[in-house]
From TrEMBL:
Gene3D superfamilies: 3.40.630.30. PROSITE patterns: GNAT. Keywords: Acyltransferase, Transferase. This is GNAT family N-acetyltransferase. InterPro entries: Acyl_CoA_acyltransferase, Bact_Acetyltransf, GNAT_dom. It holds the Pfam family Acetyltransf_1. GO terms for molecular function: acyltransferase activity, transferring groups other than amino-acyl groups. Residues 1-157 form the N-acetyltransferase domain.
Length: 157
């Protein structure tokens, strides 16, 4: 397995994998996510691929087939005047093809993202997990992540 920055030829496969993640989210929160839609257009993905502040890393097999990805965003802190300034690498989305789960692709991607964060001078790696996505929570806890904050909601509908 090789992990590298995404390139334009990865876009069709990225759409397939984004669809797998969307389906998981739509099953957990059908009130928010629309099954069968796409998160990004081809043009948006092309722009992200070229944007060093929003790197997309892909794990590929020997033939170059993308088996997983990590969409990331470099973020500069603080959110307010009372916080120490620092840089973080936010994982906006991490997916491993459902056929490849359990084969350490996610662990390899996460390890790569941590190393990239260090190389980029980041203080931390962060992400959000939807309530009800217990397999993702368990995976990230296994990777050493801890809950930093909780976001709560009150649905008015």
């Amino acid at each position: 397995m090789q992990i590298r920055r995404a390139v334009d030829k990865d876009i069709p496969r990225l759409h397939e994998l984004l669809g797998q993640v969307l389906q998981i989210h739509a099953e957990i929160r059908p009130d928010i996510f629309i099954s069968g839609t796409t998160k990004y257009t081809d043009e948006e993905l092309r722009e992200m691929i070229r944007n060093d502040a929003k790197p997309i890393y892909v794990a590929t097999d020997e033939q170059g087939m993308c088996e997983g990805y990590a969409f990331c965003q470099l973020r500069e802190q603080p959110f307010s005047n009372n916080m120490v300034p620092f840089r973080s690498l936010f994982i906006d989305d991490l997916c491993v093809d459902e056929r490849m789960r359990g084969q350490h692709v996610g662990e390899s991607l996460f390890a790569f993202v941590k190393e990239e964060a260090k190389r980029l001078g980041c203080y931390e790696v962060t992400l959000n997990v939807w309530e009800g996505n217990t397999s993702a929570e368990k995976f990230y806890e296994k990777m050493g992540m801890k809950t930093k904050e909780r976001q709560m909601e009150y649905i008015l509908a």
